[in-house]
Amino acid sequence: MEKLKTLVLIPARGNSKSIKKKNLTKINNKTLIQIIFEKAKKSKLVDKIICSSEDNIIIKHCKKIGLEYIIRPMKLSRDISDVFYTARHVLKLLKKNEENFDVIILAQPTSPFVSAKIFDKMIKLMYQNNHISSCQTIHETPHNYHYLNTRV
């Protein structure tokens, strides 16, 4: 079976309204962006990792940690913007450089508990089952879970 070329896209808007600069929030002295980047780097099956952001502070942070980035247009950085169009924007720019990918992983910085093992497991699943066109991670929550409890 031929290896599929895999891109990890880290979408990191800077103008979040609910939690300002949330993607730069730190856990154990590492930003959420840095955590997801380091986990993606540990994957044995990822070919490229790139961040998409419109925010100069996030771009500066990407440079500091060695994370490749693409500057996202403001029209794709609004509260109502669909991440699908961000992914399409990134893929179009990469295609101009003759970089094409078979698998795209959307690695949200706000999911810092995803591991390299999970990345590899999802990629292997996609490799082995060509009828699968997408997959996602899910997390079981207690029956009394309430979304407002996560904002503490």
What do you see in this structure?
The chain has 152 residues and is α/β, with parallel strands linked by helices. Helices cover 32% and strands 16% of the residues. The chain is built from four helices and six strands; from the N terminus they run βββαβαβαβα. The protein has a four-stranded parallel β-sheet with strand order 5-4-1-6, sandwiched between helices. The chain has a two-stranded antiparallel sheet with strand order 2-3. Strand 4, helix 2 and strand 5 form a beta-alpha-beta unit. The chain is globular and about 45 Å long. The N and C termini lie far apart (47 Å). The mean pLDDT is 87.
Strand content: 15-25%
Shape: globular
List the helices and strands in order: EEEHEHEHEH
Main β-sheet description: 4 strands, parallel
Helix content: 25-40%
